[in-house]
Amino acid sequence: MRIIKSGDKALSDLLQGRTADLDKVENEVKDIVGAIRDGGDKQLCAITARFDGTALTPSDLAVSEAEIKAAYQKVSERFLAALRLAAQNIQRYHSRQLHNSWIDPQPDGTVLGQLITPLSRVGIYVPGGKAAYPSSVLMNAIPAAVAGVQQIVMVTPPDRSGAVNPYTLVAAAEAGVTEIYRVGGAQAVAALAYGTETVNRVDKIVGPGNIYVTAAKRQVFGVVDIDMLAGPSEILIVADASARPEFVAADMLSQAEHDELASSILVTPVAGLAEKVQQQITAQLAKLNRREVAEKSINERGAIIITATLEEAVQVANSFAPEHLELLVADPYRWLGSVAGAGAVFLGHFSPEPVGDYLAGPNHVLPTGGTARFFSPLNVDTFMKKTSLIGYSPLALARDGEDILTLANTEGLDAHAASVQYRLTALAGGKDEGSAAE
């Protein structure tokens, strides 16, 4: 693992190298999206067979209620209890994010306000195939359910036999998913965006996936809304002398095992800690099931950055705006006010990132690649839309009309001006505002 001093050029290179290059799959994904848009179910099944090795017919695409019930028999009671506790915490946390519509009537009869309403139909993408990510099901579906979305559609890749992982199915049932389709990749995103004979189109697509999924989401944005363009997972740890090296190393490896492109960064003013963390990473790597993935991630994307002070370490963290930021310092709340951008902040030595991934309640679908500078985690607002309300009384229009005319005429939009002027003329002549023109 590299050790970098805060002023080195290597730090700048590290900052620039964290995003996935979507352009390299752009043309391939464009072909897939176009095929689904034009060919519907037939192409959806053909492309699934090509990429996932699963032979499906259109009648196989939807997961049945019987399959979901059978899935409950394949998971342990211990898993189900943990899943339900996580779901309860996620539901409670996201319920705090709800906002009410509002109307603000004025004495002159003007009414201004905002309607806040849920989207009607959303699609959630959950990675699948060989792996199972029930936590991702909860994190995507529960905020949508809390928002009041009536139709929550899940797509997830099947295994080679065409089956969907039972843990994923149980999580979907617990989280309020209303439809499940056994398709993944760019083809699933296209099906959600454009619709097929079997899969009805949605209003928004959320959830992280591989580079093909992310590129497809970028291509269909505008046809539907999306949450964000998620890149490889990342963690940045700010640590002082109070940090335990085995904790730091374990937390760095918890991200490295996700993906070879994941980034695990330690920033500290304590050179001795850096050396001990290196030793711990070597020792802990030997015990991991996903050692090859984690080792490549740590060696190619990981780093330890040595700063002069803890304040400088926090500044480096802000320049990264990481997906996950851990403050493994003696007084994390003292430094929290200095954090300018992060998807999620983990406070103190006993708040490791997996607590947020699974059970605490805040969403684990977070902005990556520095986009925490301007993106937020997946939340209830992701599934809401806002509509402005404007109701002017005759008194209010008479008061503001000349100013509106001035602005409309300045922009050369005389039809805009006329729509106001007709009403001002009617008011000046004492005619009823709703009477027909003579």
TrEMBL record:
<keyword id="KW-0560">Oxidoreductase</keyword>
<dbReference type="InterPro" id="IPR001692">
    <property type="entry name" value="Histidinol_DH_CS"/>
</dbReference>
<feature type="binding site">
    <location>
        <position position="255"/>
    </location>
    <ligand>
        <name>substrate</name>
    </ligand>
</feature>
<feature type="binding site">
    <location>
        <position position="411"/>
    </location>
    <ligand>
        <name>substrate</name>
    </ligand>
</feature>
<feature type="binding site">
    <location>
        <position position="416"/>
    </location>
    <ligand>
        <name>Zn(2+)</name>
    </ligand>
</feature>
<keyword id="KW-0520">NAD</keyword>
<feature type="binding site">
    <location>
        <position position="324"/>
    </location>
    <ligand>
        <name>substrate</name>
    </ligand>
</feature>
<feature type="binding site">
    <location>
        <position position="233"/>
    </location>
    <ligand>
        <name>substrate</name>
    </ligand>
</feature>
<dbReference type="GO" id="GO:0051287">
    <property type="term" value="F:NAD binding"/>
</dbReference>
<keyword id="KW-0028">Amino-acid biosynthesis</keyword>
<feature type="binding site">
    <location>
        <position position="258"/>
    </location>
    <ligand>
        <name>substrate</name>
    </ligand>
</feature>
<feature type="binding site">
    <location>
        <position position="255"/>
    </location>
    <ligand>
        <name>Zn(2+)</name>
    </ligand>
</feature>
<dbReference type="GO" id="GO:0004399">
    <property type="term" value="F:histidinol dehydrogenase activity"/>
</dbReference>
<dbReference type="InterPro" id="IPR016161">
    <property type="entry name" value="Ald_DH/histidinol_DH"/>
</dbReference>
<comment type="pathway">
    <text>Amino-acid biosynthesis; L-histidine biosynthesis; L-histidine from 5-phospho-alpha-D-ribose 1-diphosphate: step 9/9.</text>
</comment>
<comment type="similarity">
    <text>Belongs to the histidinol dehydrogenase family.</text>
</comment>
<feature type="binding site">
    <location>
        <position position="210"/>
    </location>
    <ligand>
        <name>NAD(+)</name>
    </ligand>
</feature>
<dbReference type="InterPro" id="IPR012131">
    <property type="entry name" value="Hstdl_DH"/>
</dbReference>
<feature type="binding site">
    <location>
        <position position="125"/>
    </location>
    <ligand>
        <name>NAD(+)</name>
    </ligand>
</feature>
<feature type="binding site">
    <location>
        <position position="187"/>
    </location>
    <ligand>
        <name>NAD(+)</name>
    </ligand>
</feature>
<protein>
    <recommendedName>
        <fullName>Histidinol dehydrogenase</fullName>
        <ecNumber>1.1.1.23</ecNumber>
    </recommendedName>
</protein>
<feature type="binding site">
    <location>
        <position position="416"/>
    </location>
    <ligand>
        <name>substrate</name>
    </ligand>
</feature>
<feature type="active site" description="Proton acceptor">
    <location>
        <position position="324"/>
    </location>
</feature>
<feature type="binding site">
    <location>
        <position position="258"/>
    </location>
    <ligand>
        <name>Zn(2+)</name>
    </ligand>
</feature>
<feature type="binding site">
    <location>
        <position position="357"/>
    </location>
    <ligand>
        <name>Zn(2+)</name>
    </ligand>
</feature>
<comment type="function">
    <text>Catalyzes the sequential NAD-dependent oxidations of L-histidinol to L-histidinaldehyde and then to L-histidine.</text>
</comment>
<dbReference type="InterPro" id="IPR022695">
    <property type="entry name" value="Histidinol_DH_monofunct"/>
</dbReference>
<dbReference type="GO" id="GO:0008270">
    <property type="term" value="F:zinc ion binding"/>
</dbReference>
<keyword id="KW-0368">Histidine biosynthesis</keyword>
<dbReference type="GO" id="GO:0000105">
    <property type="term" value="P:L-histidine biosynthetic process"/>
</dbReference>
<dbReference type="Pfam" id="PF00815">
    <property type="entry name" value="Histidinol_dh"/>
</dbReference>
<keyword id="KW-0479">Metal-binding</keyword>
<dbReference type="GO" id="GO:0005829">
    <property type="term" value="C:cytosol"/>
</dbReference>
<feature type="active site" description="Proton acceptor">
    <location>
        <position position="323"/>
    </location>
</feature>
<feature type="binding site">
    <location>
        <position position="357"/>
    </location>
    <ligand>
        <name>substrate</name>
    </ligand>
</feature>
<keyword id="KW-0862">Zinc</keyword>
